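Follow-up to my post from last week.
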Amino acid sequence: MKYDFASIEQKWRDYWDREQTFRTPNPGDPPDAGFDPDKPKFYVLDMFPYPSGVGLHVGHPLGYIATDILGRYKLMRGFNVLHPMGYDAFGLPAEQYAVEHNVHPRITTEKNIANMTAQLKRLGMGYDWSRCFATTDPGYVKWTQWIFLQLYHSYFDPIENKAMPIAHLIHQLEQQNYYVGIDGELINSADTENLEALSGIGDPNVHKWHELDPGQQARLLDEYRLAYMDDVEVNWCPRLGTVLANEEVTNDGRSERGNFPVYKRPLKQWMLRITAYCDRLIDGLDDIDWPESIKLLQRNWIGKSLGARVDFAVDGTDDASITVFTTRPDTLFGATYMVLAPEHPLVGEITTDAQLDAVEAYQRRAESRSSVDRQADAKEKTGVFTGAYAVNPVNDQAIPIWIADYVMMGYGTGAIMAVPAHDERDYAFARTFDLPIVEVVSGGDVSKEAYTGNGPLIHSANDEVSLNGLPVDEAKQRITGWLEARQLGWSQTQYRLRDWLFSRQRYWGEPFPILHGPHGEIRPVDEADLPVELPEMDDFKPHGTDDPDAPPQPPLGRAGDEWKKVTIDGVEYTRELNTMPNWAGSCWYYLRYLDPQNKDALVGREAERYWMLSKKKDGSHHAGGIDLYIGGPEHAVLHLLYFRFWHQVLYDLGHVSTPEPAGRYFAQGYIQAFYYEDAKGVRVPAADVIDQKSNQPAMELQDKDEKELELVYEGRPVKRQYGKMGKSLKNAIDPVEVMDRYGCDTLRLYEMYLGPLEASKTWNTQDIVGVHRFLQRVWRNFYDADNGGLLIDEQAPDEATLRLLHKTIQRVTDAMESMGFNVAIAALIELNNALVKLDKLPRVVAESFVKMLAPFAPHVAEELWAVLGQAPSVAHRDWPAYDPALLVEDTIELPVQVNGKLRGKVTVAADADDSAIEAAARADPNVAVQLDGKTVRKVIVIPKRLVNIVAS
RNA sequence: GCCGGAGUGGUGGAAUUGGCAGACACGUCGGAUUCAAAAUCCGAUGCCCCUUAAAGGCGUGUGGGUUCGAGUCCCACCUCCGGCACCA
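User reply:
Got it. Predicted complex:
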């Protein structure tokens, strides 16, 4: 009997499909057949793929194999396991593929999904396919749009610290619990102090709700909705023909997708008020088991800074003042000039006639430059003096006001006080323009460079307050207190995170459930009319251009009026023509898997509570969410931030039961590979690169140092680069080819054996034979290679074999719990190598071995399980348990060190006392030689570990 | 520049968290089988000294330190990878 993996794998794939082996019953009234409410649950989730149509490479299934192994393991450990899969089918990748092939995206998406499903089934994945859906399904789009309407109809209440229905805010305003300030700020009517500060009630700038006209009321509410339209500085990518979120723009000012230039320009777009959740998003990180590195990325991205706002009066004006944000109010006495962002609204007001031409020229230049240019010469400081002066509130000094593009309108107040002595950027600017530098924190040498460290304050006192001698943190507190008392400033928390730009000029996305009235009023689509489906269009392509001044043109603008125009009660509305970004669908898909067919809610209450809430041992719940989420860390400040935001809103509004979507997230590493570039940086097909010295293909010389090779492609020298595997890099390995040659079980084992799941690792095709040989050896332990006879022994195993089995069960079980799959496989290989030496395989050992192999190599395990005469499926059998008594050895071998160096080994009884061990150690001939002529100073006996004799 | 992470044989990686460094696998070398090759099987394999073996010396990026004992802890530095980047 040969190990015929092709037919074995086909047979068991068909079996799982036919028998629905991995279908997961749901709770409910009545529950699905086979649902056992007494079992604990395990919700394990992969980041679902884009059905891009280019096909999978071996890097894609890495995380999927890991979750599949864990899901199968947990099933055997008695959990109700939910392990679903679906498709993130909207968005740029799907649309670009459709454009390239000139087919409607719905057609290509369907085709690609079918293709990818076949590939995933070929990988032996134990998904519950009955829960599979695509984000493009109308039944799913309906609820994506519904959630958007929840965002539109909600605001973040700072007192409750959570999202609430906008109706609650309206009620508060009607009850006059709040008044409305000049900038639309809400003033608590009980907060008399604040009202007095604004000259009290009756101030023309403070209004009651009913004093506002309906238009003003609507605009006021828009200031608070979690989804709102606003004129904002957007990232406009003319080449892609769409705007992008900050998170989708690389740090050199280009689009993450396509690497095209991105320009800042003002545009009226849909925004999501994610900034309202800054603190919740930071605080929530403390309660979830995510890698610290990912938490840190999110914290840094949100960028919380504690500091102060300070008002500087503009010299020679009655009421003009500039508010700055600073994290270093302690250095206020060292402020020697101020800088406004070029687009700051006050610039026109304060600029003197003499400086007007220079200022306007600088503004035009700043405006015309793309973010790419602005980054490129970031080092060189440029700027122009406005001619105006501000008054430093602590010492009444007049300091010049400049404009410069190193200050950005989008952060803080768009204005800074410059303290060149203690800020590197201000220092460089002051040096360039010869502005004064005043040291106020001692400890550095400000004649050479800015000093940003701690130290006693100096030169910082006025008639009322002195900071001199204080360390930085105390000086901050004292000066902030003084500013607050004088109403010149106040402490302030500032965030780096901006609101989330949520519109795209794309066809292949969820339409907004929004109508625009003839006078610009916004009317949400009635829930009963959801989903708003995309119109059928022939010309769905984005019209990309190189002209940064060209206006964005949503493709839906080219749809017919029968779709665009909607008449309700005699009023003609126009549909919103932008679509949502592809992140929308991935923001809540993990909830839909719990109850994918539900027509009345995004997810049924009972299913949501069962799968999201984790039961504690005492029967109460703790906020668990997804028990294990595995995916690439490249989504750290994209999907992984966005979906937490949506989930927190849904939690606040009572639609879900846990404060966080995923209690545990695990960041998998990448599979990396070499790729090759010519002198111009153009990637060349890796398979055709050869080493001129040896005349061998470069792919077969991966171990060699590049310096020893002469790599050429078509005679041209090329350079080796190392990075993520991908079709565009021309270094992708097709998993189907690997499976054709070695089988799926081998591929699964190999990918897990490559190294720790979280590490990035190099694919090396020649290593695959190792795990393939392992499976063949396993097979030969069951079948006689000569006559095909079965080699199963019904007798109990000998003690040594039994001990080894139980030791292995312990090692594999421990490795599973810590996701050390490479180590688990090594333990199985070791056990199998020992079993090779037996004539026949004791049944007890064989059954336990097959069970442990099953999560990794499920097809061959099912086959061997059947060979053992057992009914399928091994996937539903209990994981083997180990007997602790069999792990304890009677005698143990102890290493003996002399002065910390290994000199011998002694075998002693496991329960031998220290003196007996010491005597045995001294008796070892080699140890005795080492001790000869020396005085023993000390003997250290670590029970069951080692002996160390210190001698001199 | 700032913030993370990582450096272990020819290669991928183990090491119960301070206790036998190099499990397991690839590769290489030797052998078996074969007309031959592939596949398969058996054995050896960190480096140095040595004809070989025993014994010994050196070894976890570099330099120091703590300790009976350091891949693991502390200090300084080097290299690579990832993220952020004029964020006040």
